[in-house]
Amino acid sequence: MSIIVSAIGQGLTWGVVGIGLFLTFRILDFPDMTVEGTFPMGAAACVAAIYSGASPLVATFIAFLAGLLAGLVTGLLYTKGKIPVLLAGILVMTAAYSVNLRIMGRANLSLFDKPTMLKNHFLESLPPYFDSVVLGIIVVAIVTALIIYFLQTNLGQAFIATGDNPNMARSLGISTDAMQIMGLGVSNGLIGLGGALVAQNNGFADVNMGIGVIVVALASIIIGEVVFGDLTMNQRLIAVTIGSILYRFVILLVLKLGFNANDLNLISAIVLAIFMMLPVLENRFRIRHTLAKGMTKHD
Amino acid sequence: MTEPIFELNDIVVTVNHGTPEQINIMDHVNLAIYPGDFITILGSNGAGKSTLFNVIGGNIPVTTGQILLHGKDITSMSVERRTRFLSRVFQDPKMGTAPRMTVAENLLLSEKRGQRRGLGARHLKAHMAKFKDITSVMNNGLEDRLNTATGKLSGGQRQALSFLMATIKRPEILLLDEHTAALDPQTSQELMQATNDQITRNHLTCLMITHHLDDALKYGNRLIVLDHGKITYDIAGDQKDNLTKEELLSFFNDLDG
């Protein structure tokens, strides 16, 4: 039981990362590699801030700002520096590794005897692992609500249009450069926030914790899409978090089969590859049909 | 004589500068556009029709020359800033609309053309009745598909939407870049007729590139011909009304010879 609760908690926390990536990967149609650097950067910034006496809440917000800043750099390299977005992301990701070491002063920092958002009377009174579920629900709900609101504003619509058809957006007077910089910034801010939450959940930050983040976040997005099919934009945002939880279940299942934690990246990649190939396989085996049937109640 | 809205003064656009392929794709062009002008533009491929639109829209920088809006120099104004007074419909139906957004969402976007877009709610529902009125003018069923993603529309509906998006907020200058060329003859004629109705009714100032001599003669109050980056023919008013297809054809044959 507790292992399932733990998986839900992790899924919710990682949902924030998935939503962050959704902004670039699905809305702007950008393959943004920056995330592999901003996820540990958020963790590093948060832990370092807690070490220097900041409250966990403030430290988590600082993590958001750190990710935002790194995302802005990618955005500027892409729009003003005319570097392809994939390469711009890789540059910032690579640079972030050194920055993260600078922030922490070493390769990893433990939060063992430090305050975190999970260490308060209410969350500690809950049964094991329910603390991360409650915190995850609160954060995911706030982030999802804010993004849904934002996408319904005039600015948010201009942002969507930029990803959908940049030529048209420009011809309507939308500064596509500004939209892309903003998107990369907010996206990486959310991923930094996710890194801060995961660090507090795990009790440490590690400079290598970014490896494979993009695959996990993509898996959340794709699993949500494959399982639910045609959705409105708002529903899709919620589907990301549900996809993230389902992904944790899949991983749990695979670990039960006898694989160990060292195999996680291999498993993550295989899970993502399978889900991404589903549309191709679907035509032959009608997998989506079967999956969808398993997910909805019969009438 | 009224003042021109928009002027191109001695515009030159040179490409491949300093190489043996150096060429002026816009060669000392002068053009004054007056309020209410509906100018049809003819010219063979590579004559500079699209270059002319890109110069007006700010998409390509001019090498020398001056662009004036109401007598004010806007030569170096950005594409985004120019959308405050300028709108454009492209030939490719895919160019003018956002495919994953609905018809209504596209219209709402275009209603704020050239304006600041802030964090206020978009109030889509409050616009639906108005959008229904606007789209029903096109007589192609667009009004029943306001909540459909534009990627699912037919080419004709999509192009009609592009046209509505370009005119929903009145532009001082409307650029139509062969906007009916990608459609089948029937749909193309219907859209051209609707275009003309809208332009005449709302007294829009418009430049329209076309390949159809008939359309160029039938519509508009002024006709210009481009060749090798120059305006070689500029005829307006009664003279244009009396122009025949034969005269125009013989003029084109002279160009080739």
UniProtKB/TrEMBL annotation, chain A:
Keywords, sorted A to Z: Cell membrane, Membrane, Transmembrane, Transmembrane helix
Localization terms from the record: Cell membrane
Gene Ontology CC entries for this record: plasma membrane
Superkingdom in the source lineage: Bacteria
Stretches assigned to coiled coil: none
Transmembrane domains' residue ranges: 12-28, 48-78, 85-109, 129-151, 178-197, 209-228, 237-258, 264-281
Record membrane topology: Multi-pass membrane protein
Annotated GO MF terms: transmembrane transporter activity
Chief localization: membrane
InterPro entries: ABC_transp_permease
CDD domains, A to Z: TM_PBP1_branched-chain-AA_like (cd06574)
Protein name: ABC transporter permease
Provenance organism: Lentilactobacillus rapi
Automatic annotation (TrEMBL), chain B:
Residues spanning the signal sequence: none
Entry keyword Nucleotide-binding: yes
GO molecular function: ATP binding; ATP hydrolysis activity; transmembrane transporter activity
PROSITE patterns membership: ABC_TRANSPORTER_1, ABC_TRANSPORTER_2
SMART domains: AAA
Pfam families for this protein: ABC_tran (PF00005)
ABC transporter domain span: 6-253
Protein name: ABC transporter ATP-binding protein
Organism classification: Bacteria, Bacillati, Bacillota, Bacilli, Lactobacillales
